[in-house]
Specification:
It is a single chain. With 87 residues, the chain is mostly helical. The chain has one domain. The chain contains four helices and two strands, in the order H-E-E-H-H-H. It has a two-stranded antiparallel sheet. The longest helix has 20 residues. The mean pLDDT is 83. It binds zinc ion.
């Protein structure tokens, strides 16, 4: 993950899972599996995976631990795993 993760995530131009184009105003959300920005239909499929809740808990724990030190804004990063955002 680069220091510019916010810019990369906010302005991703395609879904990291299915490759669907994302315009700046299209909502996207972070995967709890690989932290890629993905489209909302992909997020719904992700949420149906049997290990989703476990992975979501791990993702929150990991991002709080890692991002707090590196980026100073753990709330923002974790938040984007559960609430859609736009560019
Ligand atoms: Zn997608």
């Amino acid at each position: 993950m680069s220091r510019n993760w916010k810019d990369a995530l906010r302005c991703a131009t395609a879904c990291g899972r299915c490759g669907a184009a994302l315009a700046p105003a299209d909502p996207r959300i972070l995967s709890v599996y690989d932290h890629e920005p993905i489209c909302l239909p992909c997020k719904r499929r992700e949420e149906e995976r049997p290990d989703y809740e476990e992975r979501a808990r791990e993702a929150v724990g990991a991002c709080l631990a890692d991002v707090e030190v590196a980026y100073g804004d753990p709330g923002g990063f974790c938040y984007h795993h559960f609430y859609p955002f736009t560019c």
